[in-house]
């Protein structure tokens, strides 16, 4: 499988993962590796909250949207690749 964003730009790069939000395949340059905090109750009251951290892979589009709209749950590392130039 090839990276969707790169194919749309006329390039073929092998995919290293899948965006867990939109399902697009992403290459090493496009992938955004982040952390997703899942909060869960560990006791009998809502005060007994714990958070588990899991890995989250996303394409640049979804990583941008998630880190804006769900900033408390999703934290992404800065992209290794500069954003596509807008024309
Ligand atoms: Zn790519
Ligand atoms: Zn995506």
Shape type: elongated
Calculate the terminal CA-CA distance, rounded to whole Å.
28 Å
- The portion of residues assigned to helices is 10-25%
Given the helix and strand composition, which structural class is it?
alpha+beta
Main beta-sheet strand count, sense and barrel state: 3 strands, antiparallel
> What does the radius of gyration come to?
16 Å
Number of helices: 2
Annotate the secondary structure layout.
Elements: H1 4-8, E1 15-18, E2 25-27, E3 32-41, E4 49-58, H2 60-69, E5 74-76
Antiparallel strand pairs: 1-2, 3-4, 3-5
The structure holds zinc ion (ZN) (2 copies).
Residues 19, 21-22, 24, 58-59, 61-62 line the site of one zinc ion.
Could you name the key traits of this structure?
two-stranded antiparallel sheet; 3-stranded antiparallel β-sheet; binds zinc ion; alpha+beta; single chain; 2 helices; 87 residues
Question: What would you note in describing this structure?
Answer:
The protein is α+β, with helices and mostly antiparallel strands. The protein has one domain. The protein is 17% helix and 34% strand. It is built from two helices and five strands, in the order αββββαβ. The strands form two sheets. The protein has a three-stranded antiparallel β-sheet with strand order 4-3-5. It is elongated. It starts with a helix and ends in an 11-residue tail after the last strand. The mean pLDDT is 88. Bound molecules: zinc ion (2 copies). The site of one zinc ion has 8 residues, from α2.
Give a nutshell description of this structure.
By secondary structure, the chain is α+β, with helices and mostly antiparallel strands.
């Amino acid at each position: 499988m090839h990276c969707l964003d790169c194919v749309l730009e006329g390039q073929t790069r092998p995919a290293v993962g899948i965006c867990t939000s939109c399902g697009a395949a992403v290459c090493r340059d496009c992938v955004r590796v982040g952390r997703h905090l899942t909060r869960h109750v560990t006791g009998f009251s809502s005060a007994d909250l714990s958070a588990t951290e899991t890995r989250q892979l996303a394409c640049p589009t979804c990583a941008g949207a998630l880190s804006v709209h769900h900033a408390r749950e999703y934290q992404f590392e800065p992209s290794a690749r500069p954003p596509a130039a807008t024309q």
